[in-house]
Amino acid sequence: MNRLLVFMFVGTSSAATSTDEAKPFLESSDALFTSALVPPLLGAFYLVLGALVIVADDLSPGDPTDKVKVKAQDGANVLLAYGVLAADLQLSAYMFSNGYEYSQISVALALA
Fold first, then answer.
1. Which residue, 7, 28, 99, 106, is the most exposed by fewest CB within 10 angstroms?
2. How many CA atoms lie less than 13 Å away from 69 in the CB half-sphere?
3. d(Cα 43, Cα 41) in Å, to the nearest integer?
4. Backbone angles phi and psi of 79, in degrees to 5
5. Is 61 within 8 Å of 54 (Cβ atoms)?
6. CB 23 within 8 A of CB 13
7. Can you say how many angstroms the Cα of residue 72 is from the centroid of all Cα atoms in its chain?
8. Residue 69: which residues within 8 A CB-CB, separation 6 or more?
9. How far apart are CA 108 and CA 101, in angstroms?
10. When comparing pLDDT for 73 and 15, which is higher?
11. Rounded CA separation 73/6 (Å)
């Protein structure tokens, strides 16, 4: 059976139980199912999106475009950008695994 992006969150309520103990966000019986096709499809999507950005940059020549191209060729700037992206992903994963609400995660990532 092919399960493509079927998310099953059982017991994700943040409300307290009858004994006033908070329920874990994801219990061991809960599952997150995804298809093996998701990573290649995301890769293809970002490949096409990146190619379209390059084409759009070439269609709009000018001083701002040239500045961005020079900045994108600077290795330190690229490493810094990947570091910030990795930190955002780690923060998101940490907050998700510890049961933070989506609104709190969104605010934290917007301020990061």
1. 28
2. 13
3. 5
4. -65, -40
5. no
6. yes
7. 22
8. 57
9. 11
10. 73
11. 40
pTM above 0.70, yes or no: no
Cα 47 versus chain centre, distance: 16
Q: Is 56 helix (H, G, I), strand (E, B) or coil?
A: helix
Which 3 state secondary structure label does DSSP give 13? coil
Region 7-15: mean pLDDT is 40
Helix and strand numbers (H, E) in the chain are 4, 2
pLDDT category at 29 given cuts 50, 70, 90 is low
Q: Which two tokens stand for residue 47?
A: 């490949």
Q: Which of 61, 81, 62 is nearest to 71 (CA)?
A: 81
Angle value at C-alpha 40, between 35 and 46, nearest 5 degrees: 125
Element containing residue 55 per DSSP (H, E): helix 38-59
Amino acid at 7: F
